[in-house]
What does this fold into?
Amino acid sequence: MKVFEAILMDMPKLPIGLELTKKYVVRSEDTAKFLGSGDVEVLSTPAMIAYMEHTALEAVQTYLLENLTTVGIRVDVKHLRPAPKGAEITVVAKLIQQDRRKLVFEVKAFWNEDLIGEGIHERFIVDREKFLSKLRDKLGGR
It folds into this structure.
């Protein structure tokens, strides 16, 4: 049996519609001013995307074997409205598609009841040690 086929046999079929909601508080280090993506103290787009990625990661992690994890491979989001430092942000990640190891999520971020960001996020299921081993090999074994 080929290695790829063996990997696919261990690939769980995740429930489409699986959803996780998480809350985050906008910290100083999450602001556009701190990250340099702007000069105001509001939730930065990079931080909002990180919230979305983290929520999607956690949504599926408990369904995966211990040696597996997911890595982000694509983000396509709109940042629609600002949210101030200290705001509580609610992020929802919903699994809408699985194609073998590729997972597609619908992601949304809210401040209070207002939608502040939305889009699509894709993740790929990998064997954690094999993934890191390939990276170490590219770095010359470091």
Observations:
- The domain at 3-137 is CATH 3.10.129.10 (Thiol Ester Dehydrase; Chain A).
